[in-house]
Amino acid sequence: MPIPDFQALLLPLLQLASDDAEHTIAGSAEQLANDLHLTEQEREAVYTSGNGLIFRDRISWARSYLKMAGLLESTRRGYLRISDRGRTLLKENLNSLNLGVLKQKYPDFREKLEESSKTSSSAGSKLPSNTLAVVTSAASPRDTLNTAFQQWDNALKQDLLERMQQLPWQAFERLVVDLLVRMGYGGSFAEAGEAFQKGNDGGLDGVIKADRLGFDKLYVQAKRWQNGSTVGRPDVQAFAGALLDKQASKGAFITTAKFSAEALAYGSRQVNLVLIDGQELAQLMIDYNVGVNTESTILLKRLDNNYFDQEL
Asked: Which fold has domain 7-125?
């Protein structure tokens, strides 16, 4: 099953706390994951940004909203249990629970949400345009930011691909050299660039150092093809043959196009060959800051429990 959104976790989390015992985020997440029959992959799934477990984060947001509504209460650091209001709500035997229901039942909760929205609006220019809608959405604030991040990232990758496809082939090869150097291959930019200029040998565009000392080599094929083009198995097989002739242990076929299913299947059987298509190439450029720059930085802060636990 897909990982439930944070609103779908409101009622299960409140029901979990109905035993009047203290509960932690970690313990609640483990028990709910078992109750929902989540797979290990779903439990360990992380956001695209790489920061935070998705399921654990959604449990945390569900807990925060239940606490804001007065249905859960803090007992000590990191621990919560059900409140009298929470027990009363569970007696209604609800089939589901969401923020809309909480806003209708509890005016104080609605006021807190409205106040939170006003506070966010004052800094809205620094946040994605859909962030303020989270209080009526099934997505948690973290999910909303992650979705906005993905949309921005996808648009940027498309822009990068379009610009790469417009480059002369010499400029595209320089881009590939720059990326490989940023990734730790090729020694210096000058050394890697010279290696490419000496390439075009037997189906290979270049050969560069695979480590800083040059004990191993990386053979590269770089193809700037237009949008909609597909690299087929014959091209990949020819490159693999060139690697075999050179007795090469490492090869990278890099293109702005896509690889056909047959090409991917063939490449997956070659232990010394990596296929990098346009989408992956664009992502690597973003990851290693090639052809991109940082427009703005958003700092997300959370409560520092250690500060409040120390003796002031």
From this structure: Arc Repressor Mutant, subunit A (1.10.10)
